[in-house]
């Protein structure tokens, strides 16, 4: 890929990213009523996505390996406990990731 093609690709990706962030505000202006279906999706999709991420993270867990999945399970428990205690997603993710890195090394 030439430098010109790389610049054009970066520009197009940046433009499409911005458009996907602006379009909902253009379509659902404050004066317009947001459809109930959109409100429903905004309420149920975030927990569903997090559930899918958890399943995806644990899908390749090997209980027959020497560690028996201990680093993954302990890190997941750490994330849940930290989130319940402090209600800070960044803190729970960072501490859970840090614990996982410590346990696998």
Descriptive keywords:
Brnchd-chn_aa_trnsp_AzlD; single chain; 105 residues; transmembrane helix; 4 helices; Branched-chain amino acid transporter AzlD; membrane
What does this structure look like?
The chain has helices at residues 3-27, 36-58, 70-86, 89-104. With 105 residues, the chain is mostly helical. It has two domains: 1-32; 45-105, no CATH class. Helix 3 (70-86) runs antiparallel to helix 4 (89-104). The chain is extended and about 55 Å long.
Helix content: over 70%
Radius of gyration: 20 Å
Note the run of SSEs as H and E: HHHH
- List low-pLDDT spans: none
SS summary, helix count: 4
Shape: extended
End-to-end CA span:
38 Å
Mean pLDDT: 92
Task: Tell how many strands the DSSP assignment holds.
Answer: 0
Instruction: Kindly name the structural category.
Output: mainly alpha
- How many separate domains? 2
Characterize the main sheet.
none
User: Beta-strand level of the residues, as a percent range?
Assistant: under 5%
